[in-house]
Each structure stands twice: as C-alpha cells, then as structure tokens.
Amino acid sequence: MSDARRSSICPAVTLSTPRNLEDEERFLRFARQSGFLPRLMETNGIRHHRIDEGDLLQLCVRVITELYGQSADTQIELIVEGFEIR
C-alpha cells in the first residue's frame, strides 16, 4: 500500500463548517465501524480527525458513496495548503 493511502487526512473531516460539525459523530461512527481509528487533532486553530492507518482512499470513496449517498464520480473540491502538487 502506498504511503499516500497510509497516512493522510480525509477531506471530509475538518471541523470548520456547520455541516461537518453536524456530521462529526456520524462520520466517527462510520469510520470506526469500518475499522479505522480517527484521532482528534487541531492545526492552525482548525479541529480535524486524522487517520493514520488503513486504505484512506477507500474510506474517502465510502464516505462519499455510502455516508452521503453520492456517486463515486462526484466531483469535490480539493484544497491544498502548505505545499505544491507537481
């Protein structure tokens, strides 16, 4: 498994919007039932849940498709801060 899948932050778990705050417990229950161990962190004043082990890509796809009922090809915005994507 690639390092990108092993240690990342799932885009749906930052706790900076009302919707994400409303869905926090729902997401945590879903992630834990799926075998992941989210841990609460804070970076630059933003609370978020980090997952260090497992197939994060698969979790993100399942959050989109199973938790939110969207199709797997749903386009989402990727916000990148602190580094360049090459």
What does this 3D model show about the protein?
It is a single chain. With 86 residues, the protein is an alpha+beta fold. The chain contains three helices and two strands; from the N terminus they run H-H-E-E-H. Strand 1 (39-43) and strand 2 form a beta hairpin. A two-stranded antiparallel sheet has the order 1-2. Mean pLDDT is 80; it is low at 1-12. The two termini are 21 Å apart. It has one domain (3-67). Helices cover 37% and strands 12% of the residues.
* Fraction of residues in β-strands: 5-15%
Considering DSSP H and I runs of 4 or more, what fraction of the residues is helical?
Answer: 25-40%
* Count, helices: 3
Trace the largest sheet across and list its strands.
1-2
Q: Major beta sheet, specifics?
A: 2 strands, antiparallel
Poorly predicted segments: 1-12
- The topology string of helices and strands comes to HHEEH
Gross morphology: globular
What is the arithmetic mean of pLDDT? 80
Give a topology summary.
Layout: H1 3-6, H2 18-33, E1 39-43, E2 46-50, H3 56-67
Quick overview of this protein structure:
The chain is an alpha+beta fold and 86 residues long. The chain has helices at residues 3-6, 18-33, 56-67; strands at residues 39-43, 46-50.
Task: List its salient traits.
disordered N terminus, 86 residues, two-stranded antiparallel sheet, single chain, 3 helices
